[in-house]
């Protein structure tokens, strides 16, 4: 039986629920449980659950019970209370670090309240046992819930990690830019396909290499891989030059810290962006801009850009050199609107500029006078290309030049042109008069040519008659000459011994003179036959022909102890009899006109010339002659030496000249007195075509 004057355990707790909540809320701030005031409703529910459970628990265990163990709830009910409180905290979003100390604080407050109400030691021990069992259930359930939540998150993380790895691999391999991954030792552990193509190697060749080995020492000095690894950060757009193969390339390096790779070591993803072509383009653009700027600044003309209103957007500094005014002088009005344009030209310049922008295809090309800052009038030539539109505004680019000197030249040319016109008119009259005189002179020359043609015809007829006369005369003279020779020989045979010495001398002189006369007549007949006979053209082997001539002259060659040297000669076409006679006369002359006490040496050689001629040279070491007599030696009966010293009729070389001319060729000679002569015979190798004139 309980003491009726002492309050029961459950009654005390029922009366102090609100007091416990207020004590709890005032105490939490002191023990560091932040945010408990904002969650007062949650903690009130926790207190209500606790007090209700304590009542049920006390009904079966405390001294107020009528029977020991009567109505005792199972022990698991207290643990289940901890489970419910754990679920309540999870539902309200209270973390374990806040909720569990709060529950402990509530237990402490309940014990203090019970003690203040005069609770016994047994009741206090029972209360502590209740809270211990409830806290055990709370902690166990909380850990189970957290473990389940952790495993769910772990499974999700693993799924996301696998998904991200797959996505990373796809993205990494499909990247257009070369990319590779390096570890904490800056060694390459992965490369994409673009990297293999960029460096021209396989993955086996690149993976495992040091980054500096791949990119080069200079690139490693410039990049920030080590700093990024140390600081676990990223870097971007570091421009470096690397050697790929034998070519230098410029790239942007970008790096991103990847964290620990496979939980083993940190890594960085490096992406290269090839900007070689871009750099080359930028350099070319810079060079082009520099050239354009240099051109604009150094060209003697002034370059400008204006809009459709005539306002200058740009004009080069050269404008000051042209007219003395700075560029700012024309910023608002432009040249066309400048007050320094001559009054007679200003309106025309403005109208031309307006038409230029208003009418497509109209050119802007004007010349006008301009008053310089120094007070001098100059001529300016202003012109522009076709206008173009940009952002709805029409623009034009133009050039203005100082043409003052040109204008002066034009004026001077105009004066000269007038003077020239006067001179031309006067000269035309002179030419007209000269033309009349020339026409008269042409008429005189035509009459002279007619007379010359008639004279040539008469001369040809006279030559034919002369040839006929020479042939007939020599033939008619030969018969009485033969009688003289025959009777002279009979006189010698019969009466030579009966004659005195004087008579014998006369007979010998007659016989010698008759012989010379016979030789002369024979030579004349031969010369006339050449002009009268028809040519029998056949292929001629000059080697054979010249050898025959040498054989015919064998006795004379032996007598003179002469040497004949024959080179390999070329073939040609001609009259074999006449060509043989030609070379026989030349070689015979070489043997005849020899030096005293020196054996003759005669050399014969030939060559072909570009004009289709065969040139045969007959060279001797004889007495030679002065070349001023060259024309005489080919004239009939002309002799350079007396007949008493050298026999002959003086017709041999004339015969050679006639034969060469008949064959469409020529004969000439080179000689020095006392040093021999070279006779040069030029004959066509083929008689079908007329040879070119020999220069």
What topology does this entry show?
Blueprint: H1 9-15, H2 17-28, H3 40-61, H4 76-92, H5 96-116, H6 121-174, E1 179-183, E2 188-191, H7 193-199, H8 203-206, H9 211-215, H10 217-222, H11 225-231, E3 235-244, E4 247-261, E5 265-274, H12 276-298, E6 302-307, E7 312-315, H13 318-323, H14 343-358, E8 364-371, E9 377-384, E10 388-390, E11 393-402, H15 404-495, H16 501-532, E12 537-540, H17 542-552, H18 554-560, E13 563-566, E14 572-575, H19 576-592, E15 601-608, E16 613-620, H20 630-633, H21 652-662, E17 666-671, E18 677-684
Parallel strand pairs: 13-15
Antiparallel strand pairs: 1-2, 1-5, 3-4, 4-5, 6-7, 6-11, 8-9, 9-11, 10-11, 12-14, 15-16, 16-18, 17-18
Helix pairs in contact: 1-3, 2-3, 2-5, 3-4, 4-6, 5-6, 15-16, 16-21, 17-19, 19-21
What does this protein structure show overall?
Helix content is 55%, strand content 18%. The protein has 695 residues and is an alpha+beta fold. The chain has 4 domains: 9-150, Globin-like, CATH 1.10.490; 175-281, Beta-Lactamase, CATH 3.30.450; 299-402, 2-Layer Sandwich (Beta-Lactamase); 536-684, Histidine kinase-like ATPase, C-terminal domain (Heat Shock Protein 90, 2-Layer Sandwich), CATH 3.30.565.10. Helix 17 crosses helix 19. Mean pLDDT is 77; it is low at 1-8, 60-74 and 689-695.
The CATH homologous superfamily of the largest domain? Histidine kinase-like ATPase, C-terminal domain
Largest sheet: 6 strands, antiparallel
Low-confidence stretches: 1-8, 60-74, 689-695
Gyration radius from CA atoms, angstroms: 69 Å
| Fraction of residues in H or I helices | 40-55%
The best one-word shape is: elongated
- Residue share in β-strands: 15-25%
Strand count: 18
